[in-house]
Write the structure tokens for this entry.
Amino acid sequence: MFDAIGFDADDTLWHNERLFSMTQEKFRGILKEHAPDLVDRQLLDTEKKNLQVFGYGIKGFVLSMIETSIQLTKGGISGNEIEQIMDFGREMLTAPIQLLEHVEDTLQYLQNNYILLLITKGDLIDQETKIARSGLSDYFNSIEIISEKNVPAYQKILDKHQIQPERFLMVGNSIRSDILPVLEMGGTAVYIPYEIDWAHEHDSKPGSSASFHEMTHLGQLPGWLKTMEVKTG
Amino acid sequence: MFDAIGFDADDTLWHNERLFSMTQEKFRGILKEHAPDLVDRQLLDTEKKNLQVFGYGIKGFVLSMIETSIQLTKGGISGNEIEQIMDFGREMLTAPIQLLEHVEDTLQYLQNNYILLLITKGDLIDQETKIARSGLSDYFNSIEIISEKNVPAYQKILDKHQIQPERFLMVGNSIRSDILPVLEMGGTAVYIPYEIDWAHEHDSKPGSSASFHEMTHLGQLPGWLKTMEVKTG
């Protein structure tokens, strides 16, 4: 049925959005006395504006927090407060990786029967150090860090590994990045929603089809793959 | 003689360090009244300390400038001044790419006879947008953006393209990143120094050998390749 399985990383293999949420809460704490309202909204707007030049990742997030703090305080934020914001970034960049449940068992089980690819978008050094800290590198035949997850980017990866789209399964928590482009290419996609929705994306799930499946956790993947193998004989 | 030629990008194909130097001058202007001395030295120390968590690139440089400005003013720098520093970063990220002399002619000439690889280290989105803005993408068979240029990283790239090290030539301006690891692998390297030395690297040139060559500009590469072909029959 499948030759290769691609896995998203952030919020599919390990907790990530939680770290951003926790940091944003600390950021609100700093701005509490200056400008308690509108922090989340202003930060989101600033992030959206900056995404094209800064890309995804912690450094861009820190720069957006600094920019937001200056705007909301009309320049009144102090250097020491900005230093605290920078320290949040440093903590995020070195925070221990917390794997989601069932991740290690599932990868261990699948590695003998499938080509396993880690396909993640984001900041190169952020992602590389997270993968190293996760201890999961050895389960993957290849690690692909890309700046956008769209059809040409997936196609390039499949070409490189000589994988047919119809023999490719992608697993992830983002409808926009992990599911829709893979379905468009003729692949199959498994959607495992994360506990926190990312504020930048509100995409509708695709209609029910043989190529799209939803699960509640990664531990369900091996069982589902078995039923698929039985079905297709 | 060679099947493939790898090119470094920053300060080999286009001006880059100049943009950092110009920005650093503007940064000194902001700090002039606060703390005129030690700016360059403190910034360099901060950058070195941050390199491992921030990696190479403009976002990391901006964060290091902000941190330095806070330290040197003991927190006295204003939000508006920090906003100016952030604007420097935004200007750098969208600045037009200025190609070095002879670059386009040389690539055009070489593209029919060699596999051309662009091999650059740095921030994924910085590098991708620079490559796009440079207009040079189409000359290259593949573009490789990596976080460190060391022997395993080069080996991985050569394996992917099935290139033997002894049939590989690397061209670049950094002894540490473009020359030494390639020589160590058994490849050949051409060193073209840039007008400004990067403050983070002061490496000695390797001794004279058949595998190491120095040129003053990229326009000399085709002629040199011809003499090499003649020599090796």
Summary: The longest strand of chain A covers residues 115-121. The beta strands of chain A are 4-7, 115-121, 142-146, 168-172, 188-191, 212-214.
